[in-house]
Amino acid sequence: MGRTYFVEEAVGQYLSDLSTKLKPFVTGLLIGQCSPQRDYVIRAVRTPPKEEQKEENIPSKLASIDEEWITTHASQVSRMLPGGLVVIGVFIIATPELSKDSQNALRKLIFSVEKSLTKRRLWKPAEEEVSDRAALQICSATKKVVCRTYDVQDPRSSAKPADWKYQSALSASWLALDCTVNVNIHIPLLATSPNHDLEKNTKNGLNRWSKQIEDSVFLINGQIKDDDTELLEGQKKLRGNTQSSTQFSDVKVLIQLSQGSSHRSTATVQVCSGSINLKGAVKCRAYIHNNKPKVKEAIQALKRDIINTLSDRCEILFEDLIINEGPHKKNFEREYHVLPQRLFVPVAGSSVMLSDYKFGDEADAEIQERFVEMLDQSVQAEDIHIAEEINT
């Protein structure tokens, strides 16, 4: 039995529009959520054209697919996804002449996208986690849809057939978990660390902190719930309402200060030449499907959002510093940098919101431009919800 993908109807319309506009082929990403029973696809996003391709200079052979461009796009898009949403696959819409090569191209893309996303993550997938990713092939002439999956944990994995089923208002009443995490991370810079590699040291410090988040206790609406109970157990369900409506759960994160007496504590003395401090309150959010989700699925999605949102911001800050100050800045006096703030933007017909980050001096127009380029979505300035105070 292959996997079944339940797909938002708007995705079908989007893919159909792309197939009439772009010839001879177009690639893109599928965004959604994996769960043990079934998978959900709530968005499809075409690969943005490169500057030089905007002039009718579109390559005509699948061999000319720019793998690096597509994986970079996937990395950028994954930063804009709240907890629970992932790049769940890739698609190609191609003319009949190119169809026979499409599957090989999709297979290569799925593995390179996954490799690029895994490299950035500070968390490890759970053992029982779904590792199948979708490869969707659509013929632009006949509109025939073929969906297959590959197991990204197995480099020798072969294609398995999968069902692709459209459904209306698929994510109109998904559940949201919200929490604010107070961050105060102290990262020592060792005197032996070459050239003050701030980015590497920050990543190491975040790695240690992410393990604390993994071991934290999560209270959902003030209660500790058993992993295998249903998230909505004991709560009234919203009935008969297909308008986009969100049921929010308020979550508190209790980070354990010290290990139990069974762990031996060992102290290390190291010579340091400075330190990095990350301080502030970060707003975290995860969405979960409404088909009897388990508590452990919801908590896992929220844990990943907490870890991702901090590491993504640090990455964005370092990229910004390199662009504005150059990679060879050697002045390591006391400095304060403000990490970008988190914002959320609604998706039409869905209770799920997408996310992004803005620096204080960034205008709304820049954010709107980024949503069009990365997610092919136009956003009204009044729909941009800033979720946080400024953090350093």
From TrEMBL:
Domain of life of the organism encoding this protein: Eukaryota
Signal peptide interval: none
Annotated localization: Membrane
InterPro entries associated with the record: ODR-4-like
Alphabetical UniProt keywords: Membrane, Transmembrane, Transmembrane helix
Pfam families per the UniProt record, alphabetical: ODR4-like
GO CC term (a single one): membrane
BP term (GO), one: intracellular protein localization
Function: May play a role in the trafficking of a subset of G-protein coupled receptors.
Similarity remark: Belongs to the ODR-4 family.
Protein name: Protein odr-4 homolog
Lineage of origin: Eukaryota, Metazoa, Chordata, Craniata, Vertebrata
